[in-house]
Amino acid sequence: MTAAVPLRLAPPPPVVYLGGTLSHLAAPLREHFRVIYLPTDYSPTVMVPNHTGILDGSLTGSVLAPAHWIDGAAIAFLAQEAGCIVTTLTGNRLPPLHTCPAYHRPGLVIVTAPTVHQRLLEIITAHA
């Protein structure tokens, strides 16, 4: 019998999903990443990654505007459980959902690596 070998996943490509009303971040993010911004990149004929791409390895990160829980909180939870870094747009830990008024959560940064997290927070802060 051979020894078990740990699964090694390839790092995701430098692609970031930008959600909602954050179009002002598209240009500065494009200086460092390929950006998928659904309002402009959607195509009825060509599949583009969406926010769930953080789970299948097609994205290195997602930046989501403040929204209702249904809009990303479940994916954020799954990503965090899978080892991703999940914070608010200011880099703070997420508040418990029961403390979010009217089922509304803050904007989120979800990333696969600390270096990506740091770069995204720098860009967000510089263009707030």
Distance between the first and last residues' Cα? 56 Å
The percentage of residues in β strands lies in 15-25%
Class inferred from helices and paired strands:
alpha/beta
* CATH topology value: D-Maltodextrin-Binding Protein, domain 2
Give the C-alpha Rg. Answer: 15 Å
Number of strands: 7
Assigned CATH class: Alpha Beta
* Overall body shape: globular
Element order: H for helix, E for strand: EHEHHEEHEEEH
**Tally of structural domains:** 1
In helices, the fraction of residues equals 25-40%
CATH architecture: 3-Layer(aba) Sandwich
List the keywords.
single chain, 128 residues, alpha/beta, D-Maltodextrin-Binding Protein, domain 2, five-stranded mixed sheet, two-stranded antiparallel ribbon, 5 helices, globular
How do the strands and helices of this protein lay out in sequence?
Layout lengths: L14 E4 L7 H5 L3 E4 H4 L11 H4 L4 E4 L2 E2 L4 H9 L3 E4 L15 E2 L2 E4 L2 H13 L2
Parallel strand pairs: 1-2, 1-3
Antiparallel strand pairs: 3-7, 4-6, 5-7
